[in-house]
Amino acid sequence: MPGKxxxxxxxxxxxxxxxxxxxxxxxxxxxxxxxxxILLIMADDLGYSDLGIYGSEIPTPNLxxxxxxxxxxxxxxxxxxxxxxxxMLMSGMDNHLAGLGGMRQPPxxxxxxxxxxxxxxxxRVASLADLMTDAGYNTYxxxxxxxxxxxxxxxxxxxxxxxxxSLDGAAHLGPWSWTGPVNADYRDGDELVNVGExxxxxxxxxxxxxxxxxxxxxxxxxFFAWLAYTAPHFPxxxxxxxxxxxxxxxxxxYEALYLSRFERQKELGLVDENMEPDDLEIFATRxxxxxxxxxxxxxxxxxxxxxxxxxxxxxxxxxxxxxKEIDEFDNTFIMFMSDNGAEPGRRDLSETYQQHxxxxxxxxxxxxxxxxxWIMVGPEWATVSSSPSRDHKFTxxxxxxxxxxxxxxxxxxxxxxxxxxxxxxxxxxxxxxxxAGTQHPGTLYRDQEILPITSKSLLPILEGEAxxxxxxxxxxxxxxxxxxxxxxxxxxxxxxxxxxxxxxxxFDLSENNLERSDLANELPQKLEEMVKLWDQYVEDNDVxxxx
Length: 547
Hints:
With 547 residues, this protein is α/β, with parallel strands linked by helices. The chain has 2 domains: 31-470, Alkaline Phosphatase, subunit A; 472-547, 2-Layer Sandwich (Arylsulfatase, C-terminal domain), CATH 3.30.1120.10. Helices cover 29% and strands 16% of the residues. It is built from 15 helices and 21 strands. It has helices spanning 3-21, 61-68, 82-91, 95-98, 128-134, 201-215, 240-244, 254-267, 292-325, 351-354, 379-386, 398-401, 428-435, 459-462, 524-540; strands spanning 37-43, 71-73, 76-77, 138-144, 162-166, 176-177, 180-183, 186-188, 191-193, 223-228, 332-338, 402-403, 405-408, 417-419, 423-424, 444-445, 448-449, 475-479, 485-490, 493-498, 505-508. The strands form 5 sheets. The chain has a 10-stranded mixed β-sheet with strand order 9-8-5-4-10-1-11-13-2-14, with helices on both faces. Strand 20 (493-498) and strand 21 form a beta hairpin. Helix 6 packs parallel to helix 9. It is globular.
C-alpha cells in the first residue's frame, strides 16, 4: 500500500481500535470505513487546451481550482475515440481485449464472433464498477456509457447500482437525438425513457448524480461516481444565456486564438519557451479567405462551443459545492479527463443532416446552438483546441488522445503539483482499486476465467513518491476500427500510421511532443525496432489489423 494512503489507513485503524478499547464498539470494521469517495469526471471531445489551466480563454474557475489544488497530469493518454477509451477505463486493459477494437464491429469476416470486436464491454474482463461494489462502494454513473445498448451489457449489468445514460452517444438540448430529428434514447436504470423539452444534458447529469449520492448518504458507504458528460461533443448546443456570455469573443478568428493559446501555454510551462507555434498553414482555410458572413457563422460556432465548456465547469462547480455541503469534499478523490481529442468533423454538411435544414433544423445565424440546430464546430477551431498537439480525434497523432487530466484529493495529493510522468486511462482501474484498499482479482472472478490487467496504479506519482510508473522499456499501443489509426510508443519513441499519410512516421517525443519532425528516413533501424514492437502488440492484444 503506497505511503500517504498507508498512513491514512493506519490512522483510521488506530481510531477504530481505540474506540473498541474504550467500549464504544466491539464490531469489526465494515466495508467502506476509512475509504475515500471517488468521483471520475469525464468530458467528451474536450481538446487539450480548452480549460483555463491548459491555456484557454474560456473561464473554467471550478475545474482550474481543482487542478491548481491538486496535481496536473500533463502526459495523460486516452484513445482516439470515445468507446475504446471507456472500455480501457472499465477494464484496466487494452480496448481490443475488452471488446472495443472499434466503436462498431468493422466490416469483414475476420471480425465476426471475435470478442475483441463485439462493440460492447465483453465478459472476459472484470468491470471496474463490479470490483468497486465488492470493495463496499455505492456505484453511480450518469451520461455517456457507450459500452453496450442492451440491458445485459449496460451499466447496471456491469456493476453500477444507479445509472442514467444516453444510448445515442450525445444529445444536449431537448429530446432530439444526435442522429437526426427523432427522440433520443436514454436508459434510467434498466428502463428506456425519453426526455422533455427542458432537458439540458450537462445540467441533468450533474443534478441526477447529486440525487444518487444523496439517496444513499445515510448508509455509511463511500461512493464511486462516474460523471460522464457528453459536452462538448457535437452537435454543439447550449442555452441562449450560455452562448450570450461569449458574444464577440471569437470575432478575430481561429488563427489569432491559436497563437494566443499557444503563448499562454508557454507561460504555463506546458510548451517549451523556445518553441514556436506551427505555421498557420495548418488551417486549411485561412481566416482572411472567409467572407464576412462566413466569419460570423464560424465565430458563432465557437461561441456555442465555449458556452458548453463554460457550462461544464459551472455544473461541476455545483457538484463540488454539494460535496462541501455534506462534508464529503475532503474525503473525495476527484479525477478529471477528456475521453479523446477535439472533434474536427463537419458531418453537419452532409446530406444526412442538410436534408432537414429549413424544416426540422433552423441553421440561421441567430439559432445556431439551439435544440433544433445540428452544427459542428469544425476542423479549424478543433486545431485550436488541440494546441499544442498535432491533429485531432480519430488520429493517432498526439491530438487524438493526449488529453487534459488532473487529480485532486487533499488526503493524498499535494496541491499545486504537476506530473510529466506517462499515464493512461487504463491505469485508473488499479489506481481506484488501490484507493479502495483492494486489487484486481487476477484470472478468476465470480467463478469465471478473466484476463489479468497489466496497467499500473498512478498512486506513486500522485503521492509524489515517483516521477514515473511506466519505465522506458514498456510498450503502449493504440489502434481502432481496423484501419490506419494506430501507433506504438516505447519511452519517448513513437511510430504513427495515419490514413492520410504514406508509410509509418517516427517521432522522438523527448525533443517535443508536437510531432513535427518525422525521423523515419533518418533512423531506419530505430523504425524497424518500433515496427517489431507493433507486431508484438498486435499479437499480445488480439488485434485484427487488415492492411
